Amino acid sequence: MNVASPRATRQSLWPELAGGSFSLGYIMAGPIRTRLMRAGEHGEPLLLLHGVGGHLEAYNRNIVAHGEHFRTVAIDMIGHGFSDKPDRDYELPDYVEHVRDVCDALGFDRVHISGESLGGWVAVKFAAAYPERVNKLVLNTAGGLTANPTVMAAIKQKTLAAVADASYETVKARLEWLMHDAQSVTADLIEMRYAIYRQPGFLATMARIMCLQDMEIRRRNLITDDELRGIRAKTLVVWTTHDPTGAVEVGERFAGTIPDAELFVMDHCGHWPQFEDAPTFNSRHIAFLKGSS
User: Which of 1, 10, 78, 200 has a 20 to 30 Å separation from 206 between CA atoms?
Assistant: First the structure.
């Protein structure tokens, strides 16, 4: 287990993007019109998956750096961001099918997958369903291993409240819950999420997204030890010292059960280490994916 050094002072969303080339647009992934950001034209494919209620801007501080080495794509998963929002609850098979359709649409037969929170949960389920399509796997403060009623209630209450009464302050409070240092939440990130929350009908969509915070639904979607033991991909588990969803022991359980896994703990970060300390995350993440870790 490695512990990273303290994070650097944070900036706006845009300086990291200004240093390189990227594109923002839409593709049809099966029946789902899917928003995505791409960076890089060479190297192995890399897919970045955000957390519950999130969107691809979770990776604004990472995508250009990774585009120097990989064909990097961050998406809004089904029901999230500005991607299509079918009128049904979203359980893990829905996300896995969407990721498969994204890979098919992009021509990615085999891909590195890095998922944060719900994105890590989806990544594990995808690796279990399609092991031949996963190159390396990164589980970043991943969900799906525990069912803590207190954490589940907090996520559901804070998120639905922020959408129902969307304002600068309510959205800011929801984003601050993700961070160890509230100063990491920038005005442009708040404005982006506010625009997502203000979409027509989004409160009903968020209620469908939040179905995984209901105990009965969550239990039937949880990651099993058999699924973890069956992962064939070399795996990096990223955890933090201040994650609000689970202690480092959860990361240790992921890393201790997956056959070829290592744990990297980032200090002074909450649930979004890739955002709060992008330099440390990018360096370790790229080294792992390139095989130089």
Answer: 10
